[in-house]
Here is the input.
Amino acid sequence: QVEQSGAEVKKPGSTVRIFCKVSGYTFTDYFIHWIQQAPGKAFEWMGFVDPENNKTLYAENWRDRVTMTADMSTDTAFVEVRSLTAADTAIYYCATGTKWVWGQGTQIIVSS
Amino acid sequence: DVVLTQSPLSLPVTLGQPAAISCRSSQSLLYTDGNTYLNWFHQRPGQSPRRLIYKVSTRVSGVPDRFSGSGSGTNFTLKISRVEPDDVGIYFCMQGTHLFTFGPGTVVEVK
Here is the structure.
């Protein structure tokens, strides 16, 4: 099971933090990927975090604006996206590595 | 970056009839370990994607055998032998050989 935080409306220039809580398996067994689904666009892979050691690999397009972390004590992964613009309005998904089980998605709307 | 293209982008289908979706990669997806990391996902309206196929042709547990994947190198195909009502939605390919990229998706709808 993969459960994500709820929808948010953010102001341009602000930061959003989305969580992804997993259950039913050992959290450290798989990476957690983050994927953006913007309206009318293909899914875009943002990066992943290894919950065992918090090592990350970010896609080049996101490297300057995202931070991905994982908390083993709560089996929860987080993504923080900074300097939001209207172009960041999208559904953000987390997905477990290897098996690619997706969360329900988190709608983020960036609007003044 | 690896670019995945799919065709068709829209696929009207007749229930009970076969359907096929093509996914082409700008680079070979054969990895140095001998595996080809090409996945197929299905996303029903209002739902999260669900993986159907991994490593080109391996069905995920619980996926009906109506679904099959094939291909190699840069050309891949997802086939549905007999389309059922639950099969409508968006199908997309995803490669995991060169980091991760997604195809644009194919919308499958009943005629």
User: Anything to note?
Assistant: The two ends of chain A are 34 Å apart (CA to CA). Chain A touches chain B through 16 residues (CB under 8 Å). The longest strand of chain A covers residues 16-22.
